[in-house]
Design goal:
By secondary structure, the protein is mostly beta strands. The protein contains 1 helix and 10 strands.
């Protein structure tokens, strides 16, 4: 049960970190409330103490304040030495959504120790009528920087 609690706490910490990274990229006002409760729904949850993994499967939805994340599966991987959460891996139609912005990809890996978020496969970022797309996007959360690679395309609509 302590690992499940740790999983929920990490997800609570993950959401504001992503919001800060996106805001520093000047994509607008992504804002998550770190004090808001985190709700996770899925068809199933399996915890494997031997491998240090907890896996949410089937229409996984994570919400905190205005920030919503969805994916087919979300796996939580623990560090063998410390028992702390090392990374989160989301697969299958991954989306991050707020009231004004959205990011989509086929997969996402949040490396807690490394402070990075990698989005892969048909990455699409939208804010209003402005959009960026690529095959991959790497975000350094500490530095607030991002790199898009693989067929980068942007559509920037002028303000009205």
């Amino acid at each position: 049960m302590t690992r499940l609690t740790a999983t929920l706490l990490t997800i609570a910490l993950f959401l504001p970190g992503l919001a800060a990274a996106q805001t520093q990229m000047a994509l607008g006002g992504l804002d998550a409330d770190p004090d808001a409760p985190v709700e996770i729904t899925a068809e199933s949850l399996s915890v494997d103490q031997a491998t240090g993994r907890a896996t949410f499967v089937g229409d996984v939805r994570i919400g905190q304040g205005e920030m919503k994340i969805s994916a087919a599966t979300v796996e939580v991987i623990y560090d063998e030495a410390t028992g702390d959460i090392a990374r989160l891996e989301a697969e299958g139609g991954v989306t991050f959504v707020t009231a004004t912005e959205a990011a989509e990809a086929q997969s996402a890996v949040y490396d807690i120790a490394g402070g990075t978020l990698l989005l892969s496969g048909d990455v699409l970022l939208t804010q209003g009528r402005t959009a960026l797309s690529s095959q991959n996007m790497s975000i350094d959360l500490a530095a607030g920087t991002a790199e898009l690679t693989g067929g980068v395309r942007s559509v920037i609509e002028p303000a009205q």
